[in-house]
Prior knowledge:
alpha+beta
Amino acid sequence: MTLADLQEKQKAIVKSIGDLGELKTRLMELGVLCGEPVQLVRRAPWGDPIEIRVEDTFIALRRADAAKIEVEPISQLRVRKGRGAKR
C-alpha cells in the first residue's frame, strides 16, 4: 500500500521511500523516515495534492509522489502483533 492509497485521517508506518530525487532528501529532513508514523490529513477537492502529518509537521505532496512511498496501515500492524502474542 502507498501513502496515496490511505483514507483521510488514516495512520500508517513508512516502510520505504522510492526514487523521488531531491524531494526524498527534503522529506527525510522533514521527518518522513522509514519506521515513522504518518497520517493522511486530507485531499484537495480533485484529489491532488494531499496533506500529510508527520509528528507536528504538515506537508503537502503531489499524489504521484505519495504513490512512491510504501506504508503499512497501523491497524494492520496491531492485528499482527496481537496474533503473534497469542501463540
